[in-house]
Amino acid sequence: MTRFHIRERLAAWSERGDALRHALRRVRRRLALFLAVLGPGLITSNVNNDAGGIFTYSLAGAQYGAAVLWALVPMGIALYVSEEMCARMGAVTGKGLSDLIREEFGFRVTFFLLLAVLLVNFGNVLAEFAGVASAMELFGVSKYVSVPVAAVLVWLLVVQGSARRVERIFMAGCLMYLAYVFSALLAKPDWLRAAIHIIPPVTRWVPHMREMVTPVPLESGYFLILAGLIGSTIAPWQHFYLQAAVVEKRVGPRQYNETRNDVMAGSITALTIVFFIIVCTATTLHATGQRHIRDAADAAAALKPLAGGWASALFGLGLLNASLFAASILPLSTAYVICEGLGFESGVDRKMREAPIFYGLYTALIVAGAAGILVPGAPLVRISVLSQVANGLLLPFILTFVLLLVNRRDLMGERTNSRTYNVVAWGTSLAIVAVTVLLVYTSLFAAHG
Amino acid sequence: MLHATEIMGAKTYDPHGNFVGWVRELFIEPAEQPNRVAWYLLERGRYRPWLVRYNQVAAIAPGTLKLNVDERQLAPYAANEGWLAVGKDLLDQQIIDTSGRKVVRVNDLDLAEYAMVDGSAVELRLTQVDVGLRGAARRLLQGLASPGAIRTIQQKLPARTILWEFVNLIEPDPMRRVRLRITHQKLARMHPADLADIMEELSPAERQAIIATLDDLTAAEVMAELDERLQAQIVEKLDPEKAADIIEEMAPDEAADLLADLSPETSQEVLEELPSDEAEEVRELLQFDENSAGGMMNTEFVYVGEDASREEVLRWIRVQDVRAEQLDTIFLIRQDATLSGSVSVARLLLAEPGQRMAELKSEPMVSVPPETDDAEVLELFDKYNLRTLAVVGPEGRPIGAITVDDVVSRLHKGR
């Protein structure tokens, strides 16, 4: 090999190296783009699995075992469809949901809607602090200690942090949901059986599968639990939060594909966690006939003799994380939405002096939420049920606004819903509304009767 | 004084007291007069809506409008893009308050009544925009409480209004912008950093509208203050020629940072539109890793021979087209173009006219190669209290300068 050849080879190598480096750089940029956009969808969907949600899932698993698992797929679709529309509106218009409602439906409609949002979300904040209280009681900490500490932590998180840091902490909160996965693993369930039950129960008529599938119990309690599952997966506040977060992240129509993936990833992970919670309580509580639990902490306590102290502790830890997580997002989102719609300055990146109403609302929600739970003898279980009912009452209105707005061509241009998507979206919304009306009716009926 | 929402829905009567219709919209015709309500749109149920001209109105009170003509003299309604609709374009929308330098939402509009000299008609002029609690309370209570009661309540609330002269509308459609005579001259007079803050609160279409109407230099200054995602988003939507015009006005390091954030296609298109020397500089900067001295540096810097005298240097600088930011520190080079040191402008100012540049050199001479890690660069700035740091190529020649503002913005970003 002559010297000339060697030099040429070297040149070729370094060129190849350059090409490789360029390709690597491109991959890195792609990944960076996805990671930059990742967050809103993941956080929103996971926060849905809050204290009230975890109770509903545990109850569903305890009462009907694997027979409710098939509902996860429709739940996931409903969650995705309702969230995707808001994310899309945020990306295309660059405006929050309450902004759009204000601009298109006027001041009075917005005012009363936001008043309702404030009341309903306050109910949810109460329920989250109730979750913190009962989760910490599992570990032997009195609510008079745990709730004030949680309130201060939550308040400091937002007031002291920048938007980016807050989001990072929330992403870490998403990881904490893995506690449920381990909790379910410790319960040693029959995974094949659980997996088969994800497919709708018609598989019972498939030969060879018959023995493995539990028949659907055709009774009112079963349908009520199904309704409860769907109702607790989709809450009114999440539409506002997601859209605002997408706007805040500066996602434009061009980055929208990444955001859609983010929403999809959020829906899937959220429902995966639900799967593990149901499987966990199904293999333990349902199998041993303990079908009546009062709240999520009750389920965690009941796990102890069946799956061991670790499973129980992890379950409780998951509950604590979920409650804390939701307790920090809800007041924040509420303050945002109200200030945005009524035209007050808002945002974590503003100083307290610049956005007094924003910080005032935020603080008031946390203080009142924590104080409400600390009242001696506060009916924690009742509060959490009523907050779910309030969610159900508000949800139809929010979904209607979302659907009306997302189909406005002057706002969305080419990005309105397609006809098929509209059929799915309206269908899903009607189903959600029907289910929540049923739920509200029975909860109120049960509460009075 | 009247309020727009008190007139929206007002019942309208002709001179004989016959009911004609309800006021649905007020139009201003900026081409004719900037703040006069030129037309009132009358809705008449299932009949065709009518337009009332400003000189056909005899009297106005909250909730009622009296005409001075018969209904047969009214014109039928036809939409006109050149009219500013008070209800649709202003109420509940966001506007820019150029005196308070922020984005606000309109709760109501205050209108002043002007009677014509002969007393035959009354016209309304838009005087200020209500963005406070008064407008909010009024809109909440309208129809529920009597107008008198509403007025008493609102007297007790603090007023928050913006004079119409200080209002800047944001209209994304360029054709309509021309017809409505919307210019952004008031915005261009604001500090670029304030304008950038305002733009961050607007929707993408509105941002685009503002950038499109600013002159290239102002646009470049504003762009430099925006966060990276927004810069990229805006440039992706501009046509490459306009984008190149704006980027050309930016400092090369800022331009390179921006181009690095664009999609490869757009960045290629923009580079092709740039003048070749500018494009070459930016391309060179793009070679460096973003987190190295090369990625932070700017290729525009001032250098003179170390033997030059103070007077020669000053004379030379005066005739050059140098940005004031680049003039903080002057680099000195030897005969073979290698870096020999730097002179701060402050020292140059205090020096005797005949002094040689070499005598004014700051000690010690600090410089870095372009591969240097950014953390190390920050350390050097801190240690030697630098304002400018020279970046030298392999032969020891200066290829760029990192200025203290690059360091500050990096520190702020990394927080």
Along the chain, the helix and strand elements of chain A come as HHHHHHHHHHHHHHHHHH
Morphology call of chain B: elongated
> Radius of gyration of chain A from the CA trace?
24 Å
Which secondary-structure class do the elements of chain B indicate?
alpha+beta
CATH architecture of the largest domain in chain B: Roll
Percent strand of chain A equals under 5%
Q: Any idea of the CATH class of the largest domain in chain B?
A: Alpha Beta
The tally of domains of chain B stands at 3
Whole-angstrom Rg of chain B: 30 Å
Shape descriptor of chain A reads globular
What oligomeric state is this?
A: heterodimer
CATH homology superfamily name of the largest domain in chain B: CBS-domain
From the 3D structure, determine the CATH topology of the largest domain in chain B.
CBS-domain
- The proportion of residues forming helix of chain A, as a percent range, comes to over 70%
Beta-strand segment tally of chain B:
21
The chain pair with the largest interface is: A-B, 20 and 25 residues
Taking all residues together, what is the mean pLDDT of chain B?
A: 85
The count of helical stretches of chain A stands at 18
